[in-house]
Amino acid sequence: MYKGMPTLTRNVISKIEPVANSNGENCTKNLPTEMLYNIFAYLDLRSLSRCAQVNKRWNSIASDLHFYQEVDLKVYWDKINGNNLRKLKNKLQIVRKLDMSWCHDSTVITNDEYFESLKSILEGAKDTLTHLCLNYTSSVSEVAMQQIFKCPYLEELRLKNVTLDLLNNGWLKSSNELMSLKSLDVSLSTIEESGLIEILKKTPNLEDLLLNNCVYLDYVDPIITTVVNYNPKLKSWTSSGTFYKENSRVYEEFEKLIQLEHLDLTLCQPRLYGSSWLERIAMNCQKLKRLLLGYWNQLTDEDLLPVLTKCKELSHLYLPHTPKISSWDIKYL
C-alpha cells in the first residue's frame, strides 16, 4: 500500500491503518471520525483511492467531495483516459481547481470518449469551478470549449500548447460571458484572431493575458483594439515571440490600458517604429512595474528615457540584445 506514496503520507497512514492489537481487536475502529477527516485532508488522490479500499468506514470518509476541491491530475497524465475520467466524475462535483495538464488519451485514434468525459465533468462542476488548466492536452474540442463558457465563476483558464477546435466561432458569439475570468493563457496554442477576439469580448474583467509564441496570430491590430474596448482592467500583457512583423503604430493603443502593470513584447519588434508610443505609455500607464523589450535591436536610450523618468513604480526592465542601449545598469534595472 505504501509504495510510491510521499513520506508524509506513509507516516500518516502507518499510524492509522486498521491493525489488530494483542486481543485481536481493531485498533482504529474507535478513532473519532473527525480525526480521520483531518488526516485524510493531507492525502493525495492516489492515497485517498487506496484508503477507500480498506473498509466501508474509510471508503465513506475518503469519498467525501470536500477532499476533491483541488485536484491535480497532471502527475497521472500517462494513466488518464476517458474511462477513468468518467469514474472520477462523481467525486469532482464541487471541484474548484482542476489541473489536467498533459492529460489526453494516447491509446485511441480519437479522443471522443475523453472529451465527452471532460464535458461531463465540467458540466457537473460548472457552479464551483474557478481554476482550469488544460496545458499540453493535445487538443480541446469545440464541445468542451462550449462547456467551459458555461462556468460562471471561472477565474483562471490555461490552454498552453493546445489545438483549439473552434470550428465555428458562431457559438462563441451566443455563449455566456465569463464575468469572473481574470487570467487567460493561450501561449503556443493554435488559436486564430477571430476566435481569440470573440473570447476577449466575453471576458470583460480580464486582467492577465498570455499570448507567447502564438504563430497562428498574424495581426496584432484587431487584438489590441479589442482588448482596449472590452478588457479595460487588463494589468498584464505577454506576447513574447508573437507579432514580430507588425507595424508599431498599433502599439500606441497600449496607452489606453491605464491599469497596465506588466508589458512583455520580447521578440516583437516591428519593422518600423518610433519612440512616441513608449512616451505615451509612460504618460498614461503610471502603474507600469515590468517592461520587457528583449531583442528590440533598434531601441535607444532616448526611446527609453520617458519610461525611466515617468514610470515611478517601474522595478523590472528587461532589455537583452539591445545594442544601442548604452548603459548596462539600464538593461537590468
Structural overview:
- By secondary structure, the chain is α/β, with parallel strands linked by helices.
- It has two domains: 63 residues, no CATH class; 264 residues, Alpha-Beta Horseshoe (Leucine-rich repeat, LRR (right-handed beta-alpha superhelix)).
- The protein is 32% helix and 11% strand.
- The protein is built from 13 helices and twelve strands.
- The strands form two sheets. A ten-stranded parallel β-sheet has the order 1-2-3-5-7-8-9-10-11-12, with no helix packed on it.
- Strand 1, helix 5 and strand 2 form a beta-alpha-beta unit.
- Helix 5 runs parallel beside helix 6.
Keywords for this entry:
single chain; alpha/beta; 333 residues; two-stranded parallel sheet; Leucine-rich repeat, LRR (right-handed beta-alpha superhelix); disordered N terminus; 13 helices; 2 domains
Task: Write a short abstract of this structure.
The protein has 333 residues and is an alpha/beta fold.
